[in-house]
Design a protein that fits this description.
By secondary structure, the protein is of the alpha/beta class. The chain is built from 31 helices and 20 strands. The longest helix has 18 residues. The chain is flat.
């Protein structure tokens, strides 16, 4: 059997799965392996369409002086090839030697100069207030920028152009132009419009060799008015694209597509034409055969269907969308097929066209797995359904889309499969002679009848139950479906719905934590992106499961078929739910703010706990931060509570991690401990750490400081008798203790720790630094509350008095 590979050779990038369907003008100077920056490779894959040919002719007329106009608008919808054309023309001027050789192969000659000043501006790269700034800079005339007042004048533009050929290329101008606010940036808009008008005027000057190329969607009226004033050349790439689409596609995907072996192609096509018979409906087999030969290796229905689907798409991807789909199709089949049919397309490529409908198709595939050509038939019907220009697929359409006589298929077998398939898929409908998919169900069995009785609340509750019991081992709380306690215990909370990103996520989290005391005991698990509740497949499977449970109570099921469905559906639902999870919410401190960070995790309890749990080293760092510079120290009990209350701390699943961190810090002499009755543990660790013990910064540990030296006793001369009776004198030395704290209790604790019972006290100096300034009444009230003690009192008050002027 003759295969595609025996007739045509796909381009290397197609075979390797590296097909570059999208060209980006800002990549023309990139070092990456891309077509945009490689003129040789770009020219090879570029088909000279009638639009591109006209552009080259107009360029030649301008260069020869046969035409004044040097401004060209390349217009067309998204994905129609405007940027491809712009980059091609850029390289024609940038690399004239390479370009001339390429153009000669197409029998085209233009009077290209050996050197052209070129400049390509993509507004994806340049977000500027004034469009002329990057243009002048790239042309090497930054010096002119300082001379520009409100906008560049015609004289200034002419000075830049000079007597040389200059080509300026501007891509996606409407994105940049549309970013200005007409109300607040009217002046910027006006200045830029004036520049464009002047630029086009110079391009229209017969004495200047300036060419300006602009890609244009023709959506911005302001730009339309400016361009229309100078009557630029308008090249509509979409018009020629429709006429030449098949040739453009073949040239882009295959090497030497214009030199394919027509004899072999005709042999392949004849095998199909000979087998085409009723109910396949072809009015003129000769003309149809010619269409098949011209479109080879694609069946004409492939190109026609894709053309109509992408023309009608919201974002109008047109030929760009087709190219990507066809490149994958060729890569996957050129070695095994002799002709590419509609059923060879990858249905996943159409998720962007109608995701829900493709999901319906995916859902229905398992219902036809016992039918030989079930998948091929359903896929063909799906693609015809996605085509707004058809009402669905006729029997003839389906057979033309699937039938491959050279692969051993028979028309009768396909017809029988088509007859047997109807009634099995839930979403396959038939209206008159047309088969099509719809979003609503096509109910045929008892289960389908019971499913009508299931409401949204039942579905959600069952999904919550399966998520809790089957996915998370009954070790979690399902948010929104059960009460979640606010206590010291660690709790894993699973949401069935996505909480979004950024502000949406923040609002959801704020709502969750509102009023909760033990905020750092919650481990929140969220779906990856789309919530489980939003999954059409999971909801449908759950509905089927609930319908089965209802049906089990109504009918006798001696063979256990209903129970088998229930068990299988529950298992499949659980497995599908697992694919949605998940992400853990972890809290990180950024400056003054505690912000959420989403971390990927598998839906496994032990894995989740492993991800969340913090080691003693990290916990120790946070303990040090809490203890540092606190003269009163930190009670272990309060520290334990803080770790569970405040999200700025790392989550701790076991209090022993905190106790271990404290022991390590004490061992390294980074904290000291005060135990019962003010006992200090500085070098030794308590046998057990009680929660009532207090941790201190080592600088607040007891330290005695001598204020002077003891005066040595006066020595008597040897043999000297003073004649006096020497009384027994109590010996004492004077010491000063430094006391620092933020409350009397702190000072009291330090005095208790640093003094002995037999010490006598002669003086205490107290200095208060108020947290905020007091009024006269407040200071007087404070002084009255000072303790009364017999003795002399000295004091000094710092006050701030207004200047008298």
């Amino acid at each position: 059997m003759i295969l595609i590979k025996d007739i045509m050779k796909p381009r290397k990038e197609v075979i390797e799965g590296k097909f570059q369907g999208v060209l980006q003008s800002h990549k023309v100077e990139s070092d990456e392996d891309r077509l945009e920056s490689k003129p040789n490779e770009l020219f090879k894959v570029t088909y000279i369409s009638s639009a591109l040919k006209i552009s080259l002719e107009r360029i030649n007329e301008k260069l020869l002086g046969d035409s004044n106009q040097g401004a060209v608008l390349i217009v067309g919808p998204y994905g129609s090839g405007k940027t491809h054309g712009l980059i091609t023309l850029y390289h024609v001027f940038k690399e004239p030697k390479i370009a001339k050789s390429w153009l000669k192969s197409w029998n085209i000659e233009i009077a290209l100069p050996p050197f052209t000043k070129t400049c390509l501006i993509s507004t994806r790269r340049y977000d500027v207030d004034f469009l002329w700034e990057p243009i002048f800079s790239k042309l090497g005339r930054e010096d002119i920028l300082s001379k520009v007042k409100r906008f560049p004048t015609v004289d200034q533009i002419e000075e830049i152009v000079g007597d040389e050929t200059c080509a300026i290329f501007i891509d996606e101008i409407e994105n940049w132009y549309g970013s200005f606010d007409p109300e607040t940036q009217a002046d910027l808009i006006e200045r830029n419009e004036t520049f464009l008008e002047h630029l086009f005027e110079v391009a229209n000057d017969p004495t200047r060799k300036l060419l300006v190329f602009v890609t244009f969607l023709e959506e911005k009226e302001g730009l339309k008015k400016i361009f229309n004033r100078t009557k630029p050349i308008r090249i509509d790439v979409s018009t020629s694209e429709k006429r030449e689409r098949d040739k453009i596609v073949l040239h882009r995907l295959f090497e030497e597509s214009d030199k394919k072996d027509t004899d072999k192609i005709e042999e392949v096509i004849q095998n199909y034409i000979d087998k085409y018979s009723a109910p396949i409906n072809i009015e003129d087999k000769y003309k149809y055969k010619q269409k098949m030969i011209d479109a080879y290796p694609f069946h004409p229905l492939v190109l026609k269907s894709l053309t109509q689907i992408y023309e009608a798409a919201t974002d109008r991807q047109d030929i760009r969308g087709m190219m990507n789909v066809l490149a994958d199709m060729v890569r996957d089949n050129f070695k095994s097929k002799d002709l590419l049919l509609v059923c060879d397309l990858d249905e996943s490529a159409f998720r962007g066209i109608d995701l829900r409908l493709v999901e319906k198709y995916d859902y229905d595939l398992k219902r036809v797995k016992d039918i030989s050509y079930g998948k091929e038939i359903l896929k063909s019907i799906l693609i015809f359904t996605l085509n707004d220009k058809t009402l669905g697929a006729t029997e003839s359409d389906i057979l033309l889309s699937v039938f491959s006589p050279t692969q051993g298929e028979t028309l009768n077998a396909l017809i029988m499969d088509l007859e047997n398939i109807y009634g099995k898929p839930h979403y396959l409908h038939k209206e008159g002679e047309f088969y099509l998919f719809k979003h609503d169900l096509n109910i045929f069995a008892l289960l389908e009848r019971e499913k009508k009785k299931i409401n949204e609340g039942d579905i959600k509750n069952k999904i919550a139950e399966i998520t809790k019991k089957d996915v998370f081992e009954n070790s979690v709380f399902i948010y929104g479906f059960e009460n979640i306690p606010d206590d010291k215990k660690t709790k894993i909370v699973v949401s069935l719905e996505s909480w979004g990103e950024n502000e949406s996520l923040k609002e959801k989290l704020d709502s969750f934590y509102q009023g909760k005391n033990w905020q750092n005991t919650y481990i929140i698990i969220l779906p990856n992106s789309v919530g489980v509740i939003s999954s059409y497949e999971i909801k449908e499977k759950t509905k089927r499961l609930l319908a089965g449970e209802l049906l089990r109570e109504q009918v006798e099921d001696s063979e256990g078929k209903i129970q088998k469905i229930i068990s299988e559906e529950r298992e499949q639902i659980a497995e599908k739910i697992k694919t949605f999870y998940g992400r853990i919410v972890k809290w990180v401190v950024r400056g003054e703010e505690v912000v959420p960070r989403l971390i990927n995790v598998l839906p496994d309890i032990s894995t989740i706990r492993e991800k969340v749990g913090s080691d003693s080293s990290l916990v120790g760092d946070f303990i040090l931060q809490e203890v540092k510079d606190k003269a009163a120290g930190v009670r272990i009990e309060f520290l334990l509570n803080d770790f569970k209350k405040f999200r700025r701390f790392p989550q701790v699943l076991d209090e022993e991690v905190i106790f271990s961190a404290i022991r390590n810090l004490h061992r390294d002499k980074r904290v000291v401990i005060q135990g019962d009755r003010g006992k200090w543990y500085i070098d030794e660790i308590p046998r057990t750490l009680e929660i009532k013990y207090v941790l201190f910064d080592p600088k607040y540990a007891p330290q005695e400081e001598e204020s002077g030296e003891k005066e040595p006793p006066k020595e008597s001369e040897p043999g000297e008798d003073t004649g006096e009776e020497i009384p027994e004198v109590e010996r004492r030395e004077r010491k000063l203790l430094e006391l620092i704290g933020n409350s009397p209790k702190v000072i009291l604790t330090q005095v208790e720790a640093k003094t002995q019972e037999k010490d006598l006290f002669s003086e205490i100096k107290i200095k208060y630094r108020f947290a905020q300034k007091l009024s006269k009444q407040e200071i007087m009230k404070f002084i009255k509350q000072l303790p009364i003690q017999e003795g002399e009192i000295e004091g000094e008050i710092e006050l701030w008095r207004e200047n008298e002027t």
